[in-house]
Amino acid sequence: MCKGNDGKYFPAGQLQECLRTEKFARQVLWRQEIDSTNNWAKEYAGSRIWMEKGTDPDGTLFVAEKQTAGKGRQGRVWTSPPGENIYMSLLLWKPEIRALSASQLTLVMGLSVAQGMEALTGRKAGIKWPNDVVFSGKKICGILTEMRVQEGKPEYIVIGAGINVNQTEFPPELQDKAASVFLETGKKADRTLGIARVMECFEKNYRKFLRTEDLSLLKEDYESLLLNKDRQVRIIEKKGQWQGIARGINDQGELLVEDSYGNLKEILSGEVSVRGLYSYV
Which residues lie closer than 8 Å to 138 by C-beta, 6 or more apart? Predict the structure, then answer.
């Protein structure tokens, strides 16, 4: 029976009882402290330790109570206080996808975290394109996808997610942009159940992704949570800024933005930043 856990430390055994997945997170590795769960997962994949044990690394989940060097997009640091949040990375070993499609898995995980947090709390979460999960206009989750390519195909892909669950305080410079499930709902959430719900949603969404190797089967679900949709946004590029109206995403996960001339432009997440005109979203 799944009892969840309200304690300070993560119980891997209880996660197994709470999971409703076939493969993902059926093997869980846990550490009290690590520099980055993404680094740990990549080292594990490259070390071949799993070969000595005769285990399949695909779907292994790496969880830590604290990160000393958590990583966000574009080299940013992800604040990782101990015992309050979820810090995890999922290892996909030799996935049957093209290297060019790997970045779309960041959006798949963003969708899965939003769905998982709704299942956990009963409160709908939104997505700020491409993959920031948002409660009440503030970010509660960061996602980073990394991979190693051999002979033109991914040898492994690591998807890391940091989810602010029970954090009670943020640095002054983040208070208008970042929040936690607790701060936005007023209730402590069960981290073990949170991991289980996210992994279940990801496994379901990942299967759909593999069928087409794009987001076409997930687009409707994603856009239903997309906070940018049909709102004015500011596109920040290296060469300058411009404004438009976000109209959704295409099958590759690029944001479709209508400019002032009525032209629809495709925005690639790795090349630009998107902001609301008057807020973070």
Answer: 176, 177, 178, 179, 184, 280
